Amino acid sequence: PSPLPVSPPPAACWGHLSSFLTPMSVSTEEFVVIGPSDPIVAMLGGDITLPCRVSPAMNVENMELRWFRSKFSEAVFIYQNQQEQREEQLAQYTGRTSLVKDFLIQGEAAVRIHNVQAFDNGLYTCFFRKGSFYEEASLELRVAGVGSGPQVHIQGPEEDGVRVVCMASGWFPKPQVQWRALSGEKFLTFSETHAQDPEGLFSVEAALVVRDSSSGNVTCSVLNPILGQKKGMAIFIPEPFFPQTSPWKPAFLVILTVLTLLLLGAAFYIKREHTTKCREMQEWEKLHREKEEDQQTKKEALKGRGKSPQISDLLFTFVKCGFLVDWRKEKFQSAHPRLAVYDENTSVTWKDMTEGMEEETCSVLGHDGITSGCCYWEVEIRNGGKSDWVLGVCRGDVERKGWYVELPKKGFWVVGKYDDKFCALLETEVSLGKVPHRVGVFLDLKEGDVSFYNMADGSHMFSFSLASSSGTLFPYFRLKPGDVSLTICSVLEGCFPGILPVL
Predict the structure, then answer these.
(1) Is the pLDDT of residue 67 over 90?
(2) What are the C-alpha distances in Å from 305 to residues 299, 301, 308, 452?
(3) Over the Cα atoms of the chain, what is R_g?
(4) Residue 336 CA from chain centroid, whole number
(5) To which CATH superfamily is domain 311-501 assigned?
(6) 151-247: which CATH architecture?
(7) Separation of alpha carbons 328 and 284, rounded Å
(8) How far apart are CA 135 and CA 137, in angstroms?
């Protein structure tokens, strides 16, 4: 016989319930109790029925009926004196159990568990007592749940190959991981670690070192061993990612030649565009000099009257590798008066250290929104261990006034220093070790993720998966009062990333 279905059977099916039950104990006195011979499978979050019956069939309405775990006192459900008794019921089952009474007069009884949880997995005993005579039977409940799809990313070169990491969460029981190449061949050697959250659900992280550059696409699949259901994700590993000692050096040289030709063509196009941008830059510099001269005149006038000049129209130009923003077409927002900007508008720090302002914060955004493709920038953190700071990306429509929480579900994908800890903010904080001095941020909207790297050694720190409805994203920075500063560094020649302060 096959296991009972996951959802409770309708009343019309109870007449056939006996075909799923076999005796688990025998008595020569008044009756025996019969339970299911095969395990019952239940889905996380669903309902499930645990049935038992007596033989020979008799009315059990006036019997004591009890379902319990490993001990008689660990009651899941108790029926006595024709009503439910809750005094001995385990707290985990309070409000989640009920008795199916449709066939009590025929000797069949079942307890229904609602909103199945990982804790419910395991062995149960159903107990029937009439007067001083009692019998019991055992049955097994197997809980199963399919979690998130795996997220796969390249972590970097290792030995003579490339290290690829696969992560998934929310599975029960412990899932199985499989790696396959494009040809369908299984990778048999890889490392795998599991962890359980407070609700008992499993997360898995599996790392594979791919040494054959001809593997092409590599697929990570996560399988539920009870349901046989799996989810997978493939990632393509370009050959240039492999160490130069690869035995496929001739093929690499061919690809390198093609890439060189493509780069030469791109360089010609960029040079032509650069000429146009230079003319625009010259006009911008001319207008900027005129603006600085006007501001200097205002400063001197204010200084003569004993007043400090008010900083206004403060702009950090954000340029994405060859695309220069025409600042004359933008509407600028004023900088917060407590922010100090210096080093040709590439660094920002907190300047107003008035007593009582320790809990104040001020956030700033990148000037241009990012809607497609890939972007990369680096941020240098000075005195990063002396005060709280945050950097990453956020949606353009997030709420940043007053008190707010920087979580992915709120539109923030960030890392930073919080209360002497360097971590990534999720529903639960993820510790990232020591505070870095320089952080690289790689935003890939095509693949839907943002990754952070410690540029001291090029190691990967953390990656977020972006929601499909993330919309326009902006570089995001936040400072708390203290002796700390953030500087956006030029990565490529002609690339001047920057930020636009916002109140």
Answers:
(1) yes
(2) 10, 7, 9, 49
(3) 33
(4) 33
(5) SPRY domain (2.60.120.920)
(6) Sandwich (2.60)
(7) 8
(8) 7
How, if at all, do strands 97-100 and 412-418 pair? Answer: unpaired
Handedness of CA 102, 104, 108, 111 (dihedral sign): positive
Are 149 and 234 in contact by the 8 Å Cβ rule? The answer is no
The C-alpha torsion from 90 through 92 and 95 to 100, rounded to 10°, is -70
**Regarding the domain with residue range 11-144, which homologous superfamily does it belong to in the CATH classification?**
Immunoglobulins (2.60.40.10)
Residue 423, token pair as written in the block? 């971590």
pLDDT one-digit tens code per residue, 427-482? 788 888 889 999 999 998 888 899 999 998 888 999 999 977 778 899 988 888 88
The CA distance from 53 to 31, in Å, is: 10
Q: What is d(CA 165, CA 154) in angstroms, rounded to the nearest whole number?
A: 6
What's the confidence (pLDDT) of residue 37? 92
pLDDT, position 356: 59
Q: Which has the closest alpha carbon to 37: 106, 170, 114, 140?
A: 140
How large is the average pLDDT for residues 7-28? 40
